Amino acid sequence: MMREKYNQQLETMYRQMVVMGSLCQQAIAAAVKTLDQEGEESRAMEARVYALDGEIDDMEREIEGLCTKLLLRQQPVATDLRRITAALKMITDLERIGDQASDIAELARFVRRGGRHEDLKQMAGEVIGMVSQSVEAFIQLDLDQARQVIAYDDVVDRWFDQIKKDLIQGIAADSAAGEELLDVFLIAKYLERIADHATNLAEWVEYALTGVRSKNGQWPETQKSER
Question: Are 53 and 124 in contact (CB under 8 A)?
């Protein structure tokens, strides 16, 4: 009976993690979409991002409370203990993703509407995919998928480097646009940081499944044979 209740609580935790991950994806998408909006539509979209950030904060507290109950009351075995510990670490990264989506929405106020932001949008799409796949890897207990996310951080880094290069050229060509282009750069930087958080998520999935957390996409010698 105790184990059945414990499994039910674990399932609840997994469902809440999915919801929190989905909210983060929505917040990133809405934040970048503010670049295409004007006037009331822009303000409404910005408010939407802030509201999502608030929901993400609430989810962090709910999941943290549930994990604490699981740890204190159920005395989980080693495998489950790693998964609960990983969940506690992951919700911190997810909460920070929500904060950074809000930062993007705030910066978008100062960026010209209708500008050429296709690279930012594509970069955001890559980042959203990383967040989604990291959470899915945790729910599905999929080590390969988690490691694919870790490796994919390099793709987002290349997007950031390309955007930075283009912005430097833009400032050189039109110094009057420097302040706005700096805001665009900061948006790209926040997206790059979100990708780092998504990588952290995937690394915690790896820890939950193996007991070892890789750093910067490198695996210990003892685990290379598993890849």
Answer: no
Looking up tokens 């999502």 gives 52
94, containing H or E segment: helix 78-108
What's the confidence (pLDDT) of residue 218? Answer: 46
Please report, as a single letter, which amino acid is at residue 1: M
* Cα–Cα distance measured from residue 164 to residue 157, given in angstroms and rounded to the nearest whole number: 10
Give 171-209 pLDDT, tens digit per residue. Answer: 888 877 778 889 999 999 999 999 999 999 999 999 999
Q: How many CB atoms lie within 10 A of CB 163?
A: 22
* C-alpha span between 103 and 209 (Å, rounded): 33
CA 216 to chain centre: 16
Q: Is the dihedral of CA 197, 214, 205, 82 positive or negative?
A: negative
Helix axes 78-108, 2-33, angle to 10 degrees: 20
Q: How far, CA to CA in Å, does 214 sit from each of 29, 78, 206, 217, 218?
A: 28, 19, 7, 6, 6
